[in-house]
Amino acid sequence: MGVKKSGCETMTGHRITMLGSHDSALQEWFCGHPDGHERGAFVMFRRLARVVNHIPASDRFLAVHVIELSGDWIIDSSSTHLTINMRKLPEIYFKCETEGLVLGFAHNHPVSSIEFSTQDEINELNILHGLSGCNGEASILVAMTLTDGRWNSRIRQGHSPRSVLPVRHLSVLSDKIDLHGITLPDETPEILLRQEAAFGKPFNSKLHSLRAVVVGAGGTGSAVATLLARAGIGELIIIDGDDLAGSNMNRVRGYRAKDIGNNKAVSLKDFIDSLKLNISVTAINGYLNESYGAIDAVSSADVVFGCTDDIAGRNMMNQAIYYHAQVYIDCGLTGRVDVHEDGFPYLRDHRGRVSCILPEFGACLRCQRVVTDEKLKYEQAIKDNPELAKLDPDTLKREYYLVGGGEQAPGVGPFTSATADNVVATFMDLIRPYRSISEELRQDNIWIDFVHMTIHSNEPVDDPNCICCRTHLLLLRNEGKYRLEMPILGEINGPE
Fold first, then answer.
1. Position with higher pLDDT, 418 vs 7
2. What is the 3-state secondary structure (H, E, C) of the chain?
């Protein structure tokens, strides 16, 4: 079920996320009955109900486990109906209660185009009645039907079983983002007409259904945030604890002279609000490792954009997307300035990076060597003793056992903007694929060389033990008591 929105109407509806592997398994199971009968499955969800100030509540339900219904689960079935053994349900209810999971019931409609039938409602009410009787009236049931390869979904709660909670979308994350249950508007805003002409009518509605978080509002982050807003993203969260400096003004977007000295995230929100776009924007004046609200905001998003030079922050986002089943697009720049024989500096090297990582596709930032223990150690040492930043790399290595330092990447506006443009173009390709990239390039790691005007990818480290992108030990993992299982980030349901 989708949510129609017009004008500046507030977006509502919860969101459901499935990994591509779960979607493939369910689609294969449902379509594999030898006689074309309906089939069913239980889908266990983890609920993320993290509150973000100034944005309407919208829970995320993450599919973590699929149980195919066969054998003595099935009493009777045909191409138009499915009757399951209700006596076996208490074991499922118990699993939900003991593991803190939300129950989902999914089935297919092999010959019907009806999203939900009258019989579906009867079945849902019966399942929810037993669930709330065992686990309490706060129990939630997620109902899903598959028709012609497309998912429809709705949510009911035990204390008001006949009321249907709206679902904004169901997203399937494979190497792309496939959004189901989107309702198309009657009219397209004038600002988005040409975008619709390029990518089709559903594209704008899909963008509008998504919640994005941009971490870092400097050269690349300010450009990414303003591009997303103008493109029609539905909800935007901007996180940055820094104040705008006059030296930033050559490469940022959306700021005015009056914003110098004020918080970047708040100032950028004010600018985007002044554009009067059909978008909800909120700003968080803080850092990921210091603000519980910032971490909760990241977990609440569908898509995370990393636009910060903070290695510790990148490391945190790199882990969070696996816990929370999110799309992560990270960017950065590197460069080297030398002195020409005429005595003037010149750019010897300047490159922009766009890393696009999905939970089951792409090498994580550690395997891409964007985040390393050496970089984390160096960054922390500089925070503890800022004077170390003035030392040359050889002295740092010899006397402090630190690897890092040297000249920072030059802050040149056209290059930061070009990198940000490619970030948003990469995001758009995930929603409506349009790119045909060379076999020499990787979707998860693209470098733009601004000096030599070439594009290339770096091969990731071949680490079969990586807990993020290889062994998937963090994928859909229960955080337990603390955010990302880190006590330093505070208790999930503890005080702010």
1. 418
2. CCCCCCCCCCCCCEEEEEEHHHHHHHHHHHCCCCCCCCCEEEEEEEEECCCCCCCCCCCEEEEEEEEECCHHHEEEECCCCEEECHHHHHHHHHHHHHHCCEEEEEEECCCCCCCCCHHHHHHHHHHHHHHHHHHCCCCEEEEEEEECCEEEEEEEECCEEEEEECEEEEEEECCCEEEECCCCCCCCCHHHHHHHHHHCHHHHHHHHHCEEEEECCCHHHHHHHHHHHHHCCCEEEEECCCECCHHHCCCCCCCCHHHCCCEHHHHHHHHHHHCCCCCEEEEECCCCCCCHHHHHHHHHCCEEEECCCCHHHHHHHHHHHHHHCCEEEEEEEEEEEEECCCCCEEEEEEEEEEEEEECCECCCCCCCCCCCHHHHHHHHHHHHCHHHHHCCHHHHHHHHCCCCCCCCCCCCHHHHHHHHHHHHHHHHHHHCCCCCCCCCCECCEEEEECCCCEEECCCCCCCCCCCCCCCCCCCCCCCCCEHHHCHHHCECCCCC
